[in-house]
Amino acid sequence: MTAGSESVLELLPLVFADPGEARARAEQVLGAGPPPLHASVAHQVLGIWQRDFGDLRIALRHLRRARDLAARAESADREADVLATLGVALVHAGRTRQGLASFERGVARGGGHTRARVLYRRAYVWWVLGHHREALEDVRRALPVLRQAADDIWTARALTLRATVHLALGAVERAVADFTAAERLWDTTGQEHDKADAVESRGLAAFRSGDIPAALRLLDEAEERYAKLGTPTYNLSIRRCEVLMAAGLAPEALVEADAAIALLDRIGGQSTRKAELLLAASWAARSAGDAHTAIARAAVAVRLFAAQRRTWWETHARLVLLEARVAAGRRSGRMVADAAAVAERLASFGSPAAPQASLLAGRIALALGWTADAERHLAVAARSRHGGPPPARMTGWAAQALRARAAGSRRGVLEACRRGLDVLDDHRMTLGASELRAHATAQGAELAALAQEVTLAQGSPRRLLEWSERWRATVLSTPPTRPPEDPALLSGLTAYREIAARAEAARMEGRPVPALEREKRRLEREIRSRTRHMGGAAADADDRFDAGRLLDRLGDGRLVELAVVDGRVHVLLCGQGRVRRFAGGSLAEAVAEAEHVQAGLRRLAHPGAEARLPLVEAAGRRLQELLLAGAVPHLGSGEVVIVPPGALHRVPWALLPALRERVLSVSPSAGSWLRARETPAPPDGPPVLVRGPGLATGGAEVPELADRYGAATVLEDDAAQVPRVLAELDGACLAHLAAHGTFRADSPLFSALRMADGPLIVHDFERLARSPYRIILSSCDTARLASVGADELLGVVTALLPLGTAGVVASSAPVNDAAVVPLMLALHKGLGAGLSLAEALRDARAALPGDAVHQATGWAFAAFGAA
């Protein structure tokens, strides 16, 4: 081969080192009227580029031309190499039979080193098709030859592929060993695209090992590398969807999958990738509770996989399709048989999803009353409870719990639920970000619900309380992992604050700037990603909820925990050394009534809506009937703590007639209240008073409070900037923040208080070493929370409670700025007299004028915690 030929052949490795440069140089070669051999290489390079990053139809034209030119050049190895590349493209186009035939000709034409490269690419195709044993066999044949030829690039590719196949079969340790060996080889090459792929693969290995933060970090790093090369990331999107779903972020996974599908359709990309993305989208939609979207996506995926002769993938898509149909309410004997057949096929493939299919068959059989069939399928699924990754073990424990319930063993149900939730706890504590911990709890919802059903039937209110606490507000049990002083995160938060302030100013002037809004969303994604990279720490084994300790701490007070079982509210009244249960109403009715109340409070925040006051008060009486019912006569005369489920966190509890005159506080869980009660107060220090910009009253209470306290630290005007505010809040005994509040239902950790330099967001609070012992948020909507996961709440209040705050006063609705001022002044008067936040807030409400605006303002605020 001539020196010129060697130069042209260098374009082939370049397409995976610098794809854009390889494409440009290949086009230059063709423009120079090259001989057939050189032209064959150039067309092959352009075909690879289009196959992986562009239009598959154009790719096939280039590759067929490259094949014909290689034949004209009478180079058997050149022809074999092109035939292998063409075979990959044909399979990705869904023409599986033609693709495999091209490989047969390539293996026959090539010899030695070239044949080993052909075998590697056929192994890749076997993996795409889900034929894992065939893939491992071709890699086994190719690797010794590639090593003997000292071909580091192709050896690393073969090791990476073998590792990926091992992961598909659940052999994580083997996969990690191969990934490690491949990465050592990649470090000796300039193959930047292959290096990015290696990082992506390590992300997948981390996920399979159960380390979701590391998986997200590595996938983000791979995406950054691909972005520098200007190459699309369809496969990475598929993998990220899988990780996001395991983290409980199914809606986010669905958005990513659908966006990748749209891009693939727009450029005419690989049919195989489209099918895989459709499978990811259907799985995400089913996990997000959108059964109809899941059915639509999965049905198309099944058809595509079948046409592509990809049985392994088709079977997985059939599993999601069946699960979505069950979620949509369909049940039949045929579906039991179909689920069992899918389980058997998955087991024959060695797929980790096989127990999931057996569990599905058992569920359907139970719903049909086929107990013998259910037992058979559930017994198979239950085998996975003793080994494998956390999702597989939880599947096994769910199956075991259903078996026990079918057999009438309440003790067996509770034991299985306990063991399954223990697995979830261990998994949840590997996550450092509170957002991920909260969403991950959704995986335990069924086990917790089963346990509550059984304990309700047993008639033990105390046990029902313990199981209600077992899965309620678990994210508050330990603080989120504080990141090290990450310069990139700090830089991102600062940039976000500046851009958000500029965007808001533009909106208020009536001239929103789209570019600022786009940059704000980009920075949100960056901040969210970096916080998700944090690993967790082990939970404190002594921090489990203890009902006896709760009853001791309550003294003369009462704690009312509202448990929801099968859509009905059950009132668990704790006090006087015991737990009693009272039947409440429908949860759906209570949620609807709470929404009516919130709408009424919003209107009452403005003068002129006095006619709404009787309607709001009537709704409060109806809420009392639904949520407290027969417990009202037993509330005693002491303090009352309300622990509502996530769906009822916006109820203005002070509006309920039986609670209006009481010392009243709210807590996300009984365990959270206990921790707040036992949180030691820091040494007395001057209160921190913060006044943000743009308030209708100018934060009029702050100057008066500054005069009252004398030695207070006052931050206002340019001094009320986020870095200074955070520095003063850290470890403070008492803080009062008068600022505009905004709640983000779509992304609760970006809920904010407006400071002089921009928003102070929940992510900022989570950087505090210790949040203020008591904090008063004189703002709209600061007590609003997003209900996520099983029964978790995310927002400003729940960010503060695990960080050392024992008491918060905040509002669950928009409030009238002018009416807030006398309420806050009266509240601080009570604190100055030595009262708790709940006591002071009760007295402050009573001191307000009797008009509708002031009454609504008082009801909108609540005391959280126990300080």
UniProtKB/TrEMBL annotation:
This is CHAT domain-containing protein. SMART domains: TPR (SM00028). Residues 618-865 form the CHAT domain. Pfam families: CHAT. It comes from Streptomyces cinerochromogenes.
